[in-house]
Amino acid sequence: LGFASLILADMDDNDPRKKDLKVIESEAMRSRDIVRSLLDFARRRPVKKEPTDLNQLIQKTINLLRHQAELSNITVIEDFKSDLAPIVLDADQMKQVFVNLMKNAFDAMPKGGTLTITTHTAPAEGSGLSMVEIRFKDTGAGISKENLQKIFDPFFSTKEEMGTGLGLAV
Description:
Elements: H1 2-10, H2 18-42, E1 50-52, H3 54-71, E2 74-80, E3 87-89, H4 91-107, E4 113-123, E5 130-138, H5 145-148
Parallel strand pairs: 2-4
Antiparallel strand pairs: 1-3, 4-5
Helix pairs in contact: 1-2, 3-4
């Protein structure tokens, strides 16, 4: 991360590699945050809440994984309510949640398919307030009913050789 930042600082703005290097820098920071999340999983850290444009946060996450989706023959459909108010949340933690959900969807569609991500507002039952709902819907096989209750349990995975079971738990 440090070397990427140094190179970026010395790089001409018109250099065609600058955009890719910024992605490397951003992903290195995200990786650092994942490690921090794993550590925080064992010892809780304070949540860093701030007003966030949820649609923009999801779009940034999609952009990170767009190439992987294309290589896997997966179409990502974005159906976002355009006038969502900013939501107070920890953007880094939510981005990681979205990455985990998207990667799980990709894994569930090994021969390709469609992932539809939807945002909209819905009434919060009994409160007179509204809430924002985010839906991730894929054309994969789905999760068996007996496993559905376990998906947020640490170290639970249905992916024999490749899963750690920490994605959704973290």
